[in-house]
Amino acid sequence: MRSTGEVMGMDYEFSGAFAKAQIAAGQKLTLSGTVFLSLNDLTKRHLGEIGRGFRDLGFNIIATSGTAKVRQLEGIPAEPVLKIHEGRPDARDMLKNGQIQVMVITSSGDALDSKDGIQLRRLALAYKVPIITTVDGARATMDAIKSLKDKSIETLALQDYFQTADVSQTCKQWHKPHLKDSFFFM
């Protein structure tokens, strides 16, 4: 796992495990603030779910102009923000000023969108702002933030998660009794 930088988070629930993995990867999952939304046309149908989810967690919503229009049609207000090529102040300025705590950007693949997205992702990395690039990632992040709000992070040894596992019986089934002393779960 060292060569590519993977991390692991364990919990009894996915939301807690995802939160722990994000923290271990150096992502700062903030519990409040402003979320920036810029979704491509293929993922805009999920705007209601994502916008309401972050709003219900207490976040303010800002979005690129097209995304903001769809947001308002869905009944969730979103402050419009200029795209990079549309003038200033834009999302870069807001990132630099600490006005954005979470970014949800799904790329459409066109050259201009891709160029803007690359600039925003690089800047967000520099300022340690979590970047979410998929709808599933947005859902997982919302669940993780809710989990962090609802309960504190609990640290357990790997053995605590599997204390009911009968290691000696498992090793007998494998017909390799010597594995008893080195049995582990991944």
From TrEMBL:
Name of one Pfam family that matches: MGS
Superkingdom assignment: Eukaryota
EC number from the UniProt entry: 6.3.5.5
MF terms in GO: ATP binding; carbamoyl-phosphate synthase (glutamine-hydrolyzing) activity
Keyword hit for Cell division: no
Gene3D superfamilies given in the database record: Methylglyoxal synthase-like domain (3.40.50.1380)
Coiled coil: none
Alphabetical keyword list: ATP-binding, Ligase, Nucleotide-binding
Chain ranges of the MGS-like domain: 27-168
Transmembrane spans: none
GO cellular component annotations of the record: cytoplasm
Annotated GO biological process: glutamine metabolic process
UniProt-listed InterPro entries: MGS-like_dom, MGS-like_dom_sf, MGS_CPS_CarB
PANTHER family: CARBAMOYL-PHOSPHATE SYNTHASE [AMMONIA], MITOCHONDRIAL, CARBAMOYLTRANSFERASE FAMILY MEMBER
Name by which UniProt lists this protein: carbamoyl-phosphate synthase (glutamine-hydrolyzing)
Organism this protein belongs to: Setaria viridis
Classification lineage: Eukaryota, Viridiplantae, Streptophyta, Embryophyta, Tracheophyta
